Amino acid sequence: MIIVQGNRSIVCAIAATILFHFITNAQESVRFQAYGHTPDVINDSLYKALMNTSETNERANLLYHIGNEHQKHGNGDSTIYYGNLINGLVSLKSKELKNIQLNKARGQLLLGKGNYLNGLLDEALKAYIEGTSQTNFSEYEKEHINLKMGLAETYVQKGSYEEAKVIFSELLQNSTDNTIRARSNFYLGTITLQREDIGLAKKYFESTKTILSDMDSPRLKLWVNLSFGRLAAMENKNDHAFTFFENTMADALDQKYFDIYTEAVLDYGKVCTKLEQFQMAEMALSMAYANAMQWNRLELQKKIINSLRITYQKKGDFENAYNLMTQYLRVSNQILEQQNSKAIKEIEIKYQTLQKENQIYELKEEQLAKQSEIERQKTIKKAFLYGFLVLLVPIIALLFVYYQKLQTQSQLNQQQEELNSQKIASLLSSQELELARASLDAQQEERYRIAKQLHDSIGGNLAGIKLQLANLKEDTKFQKEVMAQVNDTYELVRDISHDLVPKKFNQNAFISLLENYINQLEKNSEIEISFSAHPKETVNDLEPKLKVELYQIIQELFTNTIKHAEANSVEAHLNIHDGLFQLIFEDDGKGFELENLRKGIGLKNIENRLHNLNARLMLDSTPNRGTVVTIEIPLKDS
């Protein structure tokens, strides 16, 4: 039974799109549940204790426990709120507050966990790094380890797997705490699962399950159970996957872990989409989206919107798929607006630099100690020899340093010359390619112009002359010969004008041309390509010049993806709706940071073509999450 409370707009949206019951093949009832308000999961005794105490240290301790309870149950906003309250107490520098360093760590820990839950991953990184930098490991070992664990978990969510693996491996090696070992094993399994190494991921999750067997850690046990469901789905063991997801949903609801419940519903909907059970998929994903919106879980909203878009796309409902893509871009922009990436990057770099400096300092200390011992032994054993070499050694050292300097300078000069030669060759090559592309574009434009002039002007004049000759009253042999010559000339002009426009765009349907091109790409590469166009008749009836431009833009997009993206699959969709042509091009490649984007010749050519068409280009990409290119072209009224 679905329970919906609170905002009426949410109630209506859910009620309009979701069925109340669905019976699986095993005839077992599956229950989805949504909440119109954030459920109250905190024991009233904690709030009463907070209200009844004025002692600063006791307040700080209670604030941390309340915030931590909110975090356990997936309430990101409340977790951030209590983290800020603790930081407020610390910033007052009250003489009554003991263990300021401990409370600083706890405040940053809550801020990191809350921002992580809300999908503000850069803000989470900032909190964890600042907390780790401010915390002394020897005095506050537990808080320091939890901060590092949170930092590693955030790296996993961002797709920075190598940075995460370094921290988890260090924790496994140095910690004897079973909770830390279980969490480290679980996230190493999650990283391996993202890389689709199912066998190794299964070993990590089995190891986590063994460690947890004698522990009271219900939240982590639910995550492990959900991960086994995801493994089953990847192996196409769909019945097993449904069982894991249903058990996870039921236990998460009973224990009030609403974020895990929503993740399980999302995975349930994905498998339904894969099996083309679209009605069930829409119900599950819509319910998950309602909960994610209520709790302001932006990153989770993105994942659910994308799954819904794929569901509608596979179902053939391209209008709703397009609307969801617009919503996906809105949520992405909302996340970017809430994060100060530049400041966070600087803090992250400072943290990494501090770590490296500490390592270098320790190595230097060790080297100095060893060197001191060596020098002491040499002084004792060979004191008389140093007296003889006191003048000779500095001279030899100076000569050696001078020789090394000459050698190094010579190598640097040689390397600089090679770099300069490479740069010059690269610039020349780029200029030649740009000139060639510009020449081809100009040639294409000129061919259209000449063809139009031949067809419209000269062809029209010849048709007029032919009509006048036909209307002459006299019907002489000379008149017939002139008529025949005019007619031959008209046909010749018409053939020339048609030859100037690429024949394949006149003799073949545009969608067929694209499908042939895509089939050739699939044969010659290992990329799986999905292509659709709607409505086909309208797309085929586009004017020839626009079809040529679109064909070349699509070629450029596929070329860039094959050369740079390292993608396994590509989806390309054409759609015409309300006088607007839309191209959605999506790959699952390595992606990139938008602020670090360097526009190559291919992207510049696409932008130039779109500028001439009065079109709009939108890019959405994240490292290790792929790239989405959306192009919108307004069509002229026919």
Sequence-ordered SSE layout with sheet pairings:
Layout: H1 8-17, E1 22-23, E2 29-30, H2 44-52, H3 56-72, H4 76-91, H5 100-117, H6 121-134, H7 141-158, H8 161-174, H9 178-194, H10 198-212, H11 218-234, H12 238-255, H13 258-274, H14 278-294, H15 298-315, H16 318-337, H17 341-381, H18 383-389, H19 392-470, H20 477-500, H21 503-507, H22 510-524, E3 528-534, H23 536-540, H24 544-565, E4 569-577, E5 580-587, H25 601-612, E6 616-622, E7 626-634
Helix pairs in contact: 2-3, 3-4, 3-5, 4-5, 5-6, 5-7, 6-7, 6-17, 7-8, 7-9, 8-9, 9-10, 9-11, 10-11, 11-12, 11-13, 12-13, 13-14, 13-15, 14-15, 15-16, 19-20, 24-25
Transmembrane segments: 383-403
Protein name: histidine kinase
Domain Histidine kinase: 449-637
Mind explaining what this structure looks like?
73% of the residues lie in helices and 7% in strands. The chain contains 25 helices and 7 strands. Mean pLDDT is 76; it is low at 1-28. The strands form 2 sheets. It has a 5-stranded mixed beta sheet, sandwiched between helices. Strands 1-2 form a two-stranded antiparallel sheet. It is α+β, with helices and mostly antiparallel strands and 638 residues long. β4 and β5 (580-587) form a beta hairpin. The protein starts with 7 loop residues before the first helix and ends with a strand. Among the domains are: 216-339, Serine Threonine Protein Phosphatase 5, Tetratricopeptide repeat (Alpha Horseshoe), CATH 1.25.40.10; 384-501, no CATH class; 509-634, Histidine kinase-like ATPase, C-terminal domain (Heat Shock Protein 90, 2-Layer Sandwich), CATH 3.30.565.10. It is an enzyme of class 2 (transferase). Its EC number is 2.7.13.3. Residues 449-637 form the Histidine kinase domain. GO terms for molecular function: ATP binding. It catalyses: ATP + protein L-histidine = ADP + protein N-phospho-L-histidine.
